[in-house]
Amino acid sequence: MVREHCDRTTALVNESSQLVLAGHVEPQDDLRAERKRASFSSQELAVVLNGGTEVLQRRSRLISQLQSTSWGSQAAVSQRCFHSREQLHVEGLVAQTEIWKLMQSGALSQQDAKDMETLLTLPGGLTLHQYMFIPTIETQGDEEQQAYWLPKARALEITGAYAQTEMGHGTFVRGLETTATYDRASEEFIIHSPALSSIKWWPGGLGKTATHCIMLARLIINSKDHGLHPFVMQIRDLHTHLPLAGVRVGDIGPKFGYNGVDNGYLMLDRVRIPRRAMLMRHARVTPDGHYFPPSAENAKATYGTMVAIRALLVDEAGWVLARATTIAVRYTAIRRQTSERVGDKELQVLDYQNLAATLLPLVASAYALIFMGKASSDMYKRFEQDRDAGNLASLPELHVLLAGMKALSTWTAADGIEACRRGCGGHGYSALSGLPDLYASYVQNVTLEGDNNVMSLQTARHLVKSQEAVAKGRRVEGSAAYLQRAEQELHRKCSVQAPQDWQTAEVLDAALRHRATYLAAEGHKLLLRHGGGKINFAGPDWNGNTVQLIHMAQAHSQLVLHTTFAQSVHQADLEPAARAALIKLVALHGMSLLLRDLQDLFMDGYLQAFQAQMLVQRRNELLLELRPDAVALVDSFGIADYQLNSCLGRSDGDVYRALLEAASGQQLNKTEEGPAWNAVLKPWLDPASRQQARSKL
Ligand SMILES: Cc1cc2nc3c(=O)[nH]c(=O)nc-3n(C[C@H](O)[C@H](O)[C@H](O)COP(=O)(O)OP(=O)(O)OC[C@H]3O[C@@H](n4cnc5c(N)ncnc54)[C@H](O)[C@@H]3O)c2cc1C
């Protein structure tokens, strides 16, 4: 009887399942089919994008090494999104110190160690020690100071943070208030926070990790303020890790993301440090209190470090966006929603035009930024060679170019990750998609290393100055050289007569250049009008027009980005099918940039309505033409599943199984009844408990 019941159940359910699953497609089959329909080999393109087979092989080797450890195993990595701040903080430091150990033992080169940390994507309290504390001593300490501090820092006998920003000031560095007053009698500096607003606030690793920091404070000698200078300052006891006398230090609390890192606060009450704690490679204070300022050349060299970091940020933006688009494109290629009749195959959501129009331009942006990142680091390397030969001539151009590009690239990547997350629907909101954490950790980049608005305004200043130079008959070189021909350019009109014309590189370049020229000319005119014929780079004239000025800088950076992308594809060593796909991607990139701010091209009559309609039409056609290559384009980034750490983005497409496994393995599911059962739910829901409670009344 029981057997018969079971058989009947199975038969009935099988029948229903067949009915419902008639149009079912296994996600893995979808991804396989996507890869089959691609027009080029993603393996070959991955080699080009990543800079050679050896780079990819080295990455696989590092991932295998990581996976063989307890702190870097796949299981450890995928559990991270369930962990508390405290756990993440400790795990980050465990990983960083273990990698440090491997490096010290010679098992890893310095570059391997850096790359391993990048692959692990688990930020820790030692990041600023590596990227700011040690480099600042290297570049600003004199020989004796380097010989004293660097061996200790490299052996991790001390750990450091970079304490610049204060509660009251970040962007306006000259407004920082912490004082370093020289006491000639004892040959010491007294470091003090004179107000609440002068408490150091934000430095990474300062809260709980750092024993020392680079302290940026105003040097004051005999009541004379010599401005900001760097000091190496001990803040914690090396035996107990407790704060030293006069030091109040701690973590600033939970943040939007990046929560494993102990960004800290530091308040100082007349703390004395020796004279030689001031880093004296460029500026000096003698024992009797004489101050020797840095030379102008040295001040410029310090600028160079900032430029190097911005070049890295541009490169990173491309690869971060590559991660987000890999997740979103793969997932939307296996995600199916809606069929016309029940039982028919549902549509892959990437086939809805709205998703293709969101994601494919972002894939194009990721490619553009990756090529721009390469170009930026090449430019920086050339600058380094010149600098070592005593020539700093290329620094101003590099500075303005990368200021605007830092802003454009980090804005594009941050907004792009969020667009990818939304594109993944409900599952995009799950931490298991990898997108919320990627966004929360990344979005700080629009503020760090120079807030993006402020960066854009630096580029805007250069564009205005360039126009002033042109007006005075001087030659303008570099990325703003096109402004030389502004007068002729402003009379030009768009030449498009058919939708296909929009795909030609010349037409797109011309439109982007026209837009940048027009906006630069408008910004210049605006400032002249407000200044009564004179340009003011500060004060109400400037501050009251920053919307237009930022927009103008963005248009300039977009032009540079797009032309660099097009040129890089032109010069890259690509097989013909991959080149054909990338040429289309370049076109999509240019069209998307134009469509985003189309009104600019109408302002001076450059564009006519029929040409705008043709632009939309050609962009839509291009989306369809690129759609079969969508998965291959993201596969070509060559990002390993380990790095993606996403149930949605995994390369085999087995998304639903991955989601179930990850969800069921977490702490909240450790017991079947859940942690709130006994104390909270049981008294309400369990009839026996209710009965017992009533009988007590
Ligand atoms: C995660 C994280 C880590 C950090 N790590 C460190 C660290 O290790 N060490 C350290 O010293 N600091 C660190 N910082 C601080 C960081 O450098 C500053 O937050 C950043 O420089 C921006 O300064 P701010 O916070 O004062 O912004 P504000 O300058 O107050 O910006 C507020 C708004 O005003 C606008 N604005 C400001 N000035 C201008 C202007 N002149 N023109 C137009 N608009 C303007 C900005 O665009 C922004 O929208 C960190 C910050 C974060 C978020």
UniProtKB/TrEMBL annotation:
<keyword id="KW-0560">Oxidoreductase</keyword>
<dbReference type="InterPro" id="IPR012258">
    <property type="entry name" value="Acyl-CoA_oxidase"/>
</dbReference>
<dbReference type="GO" id="GO:0005777">
    <property type="term" value="C:peroxisome"/>
</dbReference>
<feature type="domain" description="Acyl-coenzyme A oxidase N-terminal">
    <location>
        <begin position="42"/>
        <end position="158"/>
    </location>
</feature>
<feature type="active site" description="Proton acceptor">
    <location>
        <position position="449"/>
    </location>
</feature>
<dbReference type="GO" id="GO:0055088">
    <property type="term" value="P:lipid homeostasis"/>
</dbReference>
<feature type="binding site">
    <location>
        <position position="204"/>
    </location>
    <ligand>
        <name>FAD</name>
    </ligand>
</feature>
<dbReference type="InterPro" id="IPR002655">
    <property type="entry name" value="Acyl-CoA_oxidase_C"/>
</dbReference>
<keyword id="KW-0276">Fatty acid metabolism</keyword>
<keyword id="KW-0274">FAD</keyword>
<dbReference type="Pfam" id="PF14749">
    <property type="entry name" value="Acyl-CoA_ox_N"/>
</dbReference>
<feature type="domain" description="Acyl-CoA oxidase C-alpha1">
    <location>
        <begin position="303"/>
        <end position="464"/>
    </location>
</feature>
<dbReference type="InterPro" id="IPR029320">
    <property type="entry name" value="Acyl-CoA_ox_N"/>
</dbReference>
<dbReference type="InterPro" id="IPR009100">
    <property type="entry name" value="AcylCoA_DH/oxidase_NM_dom_sf"/>
</dbReference>
<keyword id="KW-0576">Peroxisome</keyword>
<dbReference type="Pfam" id="PF01756">
    <property type="entry name" value="ACOX"/>
</dbReference>
<dbReference type="GO" id="GO:0003997">
    <property type="term" value="F:acyl-CoA oxidase activity"/>
</dbReference>
<protein>
    <recommendedName>
        <fullName>Acyl-coenzyme A oxidase</fullName>
    </recommendedName>
</protein>
<dbReference type="GO" id="GO:0071949">
    <property type="term" value="F:FAD binding"/>
</dbReference>
<keyword id="KW-0285">Flavoprotein</keyword>
<comment type="similarity">
    <text>Belongs to the acyl-CoA oxidase family.</text>
</comment>
<dbReference type="InterPro" id="IPR037069">
    <property type="entry name" value="AcylCoA_DH/ox_N_sf"/>
</dbReference>
<dbReference type="GO" id="GO:0005504">
    <property type="term" value="F:fatty acid binding"/>
</dbReference>
<dbReference type="GO" id="GO:0033540">
    <property type="term" value="P:fatty acid beta-oxidation using acyl-CoA oxidase"/>
</dbReference>
<dbReference type="InterPro" id="IPR046373">
    <property type="entry name" value="Acyl-CoA_Oxase/DH_mid-dom_sf"/>
</dbReference>
<feature type="domain" description="Acyl-CoA oxidase C-terminal">
    <location>
        <begin position="506"/>
        <end position="685"/>
    </location>
</feature>
<dbReference type="Pfam" id="PF22924">
    <property type="entry name" value="ACOX_C_alpha1"/>
</dbReference>
<keyword id="KW-0443">Lipid metabolism</keyword>
<feature type="binding site">
    <location>
        <position position="165"/>
    </location>
    <ligand>
        <name>FAD</name>
    </ligand>
</feature>
<dbReference type="InterPro" id="IPR055060">
    <property type="entry name" value="ACOX_C_alpha1"/>
</dbReference>
<dbReference type="InterPro" id="IPR036250">
    <property type="entry name" value="AcylCo_DH-like_C"/>
</dbReference>
